[in-house]
Amino acid sequence: MAVLTLDREKLRTNYIRMKELFEDRNVSWGVVSKLLCGNKLFLQELINLGINEIHDSRISNLAMIKRLKRDVQTVYIKPVSKKNVGKMVEFADVSLNSELETIRMISAEAVNQEKNHKIIIMVETGDLREGVMGEQLIDFYQEVFQLPRIEVIGLGTNLNCLNGVMPSTDKLIQLSLYKQIIELKFGREIPWLSAGTSVTIPLMLSHQLPQGINHFRVGETLYFGVDLVKEEIIEGMHGDVLELHAEIIELQEKPLLPTGILAANPSGEIAEIDESLYGKTSFRAIVDVGLLDVSPNYLFPKDPEIVILGASSDMLIVNLGTNQKGHKVGETLSFSLKYMGALGLLNSAYIEKAIV
Asked: Where is the signal peptide, in residue numbers (predicted)?
């Protein structure tokens, strides 16, 4: 079985670095755990870091977090479906919302459970995923603040999640102005401007984050140490907290080109033929992981001489060239990952998870 490992010390290093960056700028933040898919082993590592605010998009994951540490503030980070309102109020202390009718249901459920529920009102700033349109925000807020057991603790936004619209100083200033208008009109303080995700961190690092933006929701940069604008590892952080290790289950010297009549494979792909490769061979290894677990597009062999050729549902095929390093069946090859690759692996029941 292939193994996805989480490096405890590298995760801690990344966490400490992020914590220092935010503390220096007087910005609060929570860790987004949805990548971990509710894995108890990995969630415990987050909690062991001393994190007191964890965000997730699955209620079952928030329930697991509450079982591991009751006093962690849990934040549900997508609009909740009607049938899940009760469970969400039970396991989430805070939720992100953009539908008035949904907030009414949350209020009724909070009354029923005799607990207060905090919300962040999401505002549309151009990426066209979730969010209230700016011109509707005043009327929306006026309705919300009258609801029992509901406390608005922030305005927020998401960028670069659907259409790739990047955060900018102008867009975040716009959000800050919405907050000021609401506070002046209704005489109520809104503590958080939650405009930050991992893709907003580069604005902070380049000192372009507008005043007032005081809350971030961070996942990818914590686990991968990456500046998502420059696509580089941030100084002092690690990009390989998570790695895949998969066993070679076949290794043979074979032709570089297939033979026979070609048609589409089960993925709908048709092999391209480079006639200059006829008659040539290489050592090809089959590795014990496949499309059911992860797309090859998100895998990167740690050995730069290894090339990924393709995958079927349960097998990954790589080119070892002349196999100068003498790889053998039963050995393990290691791969670094992109975020979506790690997400697929963590969501797969066929991949072992381990701490190193």
From this structure: none
Q: What is the pLDDT of residues 80-100, one digit of tens each?
A: 999 999 999 999 999 999 999
pLDDT tens for 269-301 read: 777 777 777 778 999 999 999 999 999 999 999
Q: Model pTM?
A: 0.94
Query: Which domains, and CATH codes, for the chain?
Result: 8-233 (3.20.20.10), 242-355 (2.40.30)
Note the pLDDT of residue 211: 87
What SS3 string covers the chain?
A: CCEEEECHHHHHHHHHHHHHHHHHCCCEEEEECHHHCCCHHHHHHHHHCCCCEEEECCHHHHHHHHHHCCCCEEEECCCCCHHHHHHHHHHCCEEEECCHHHHHHHHHHHHHHCCCEEEEEEECCCCCCCCECHHHHHHHHHHHCCCCCEEEEEEECCCCCCCCCCCCHHHHHHHHHHHHHHHHHHCCCCCEEEEECHHHHHHHHCCCCCCCCCEEEECHHHHHCEECCCCEECCCCCCCCEEEEEEEEEEEEEECCCCCCCCCCCCCCCCCCCHHHCCCEEEEEEECCCCCCCCHHHEEECCCCCEEEEECCCCEEEECCCCCCCCCCCCEEEEEECHHHHHHHHCCCCCEEEEC
- Residue 115 known to be catalytic: no
Residues of the chain with pLDDT under 50: none
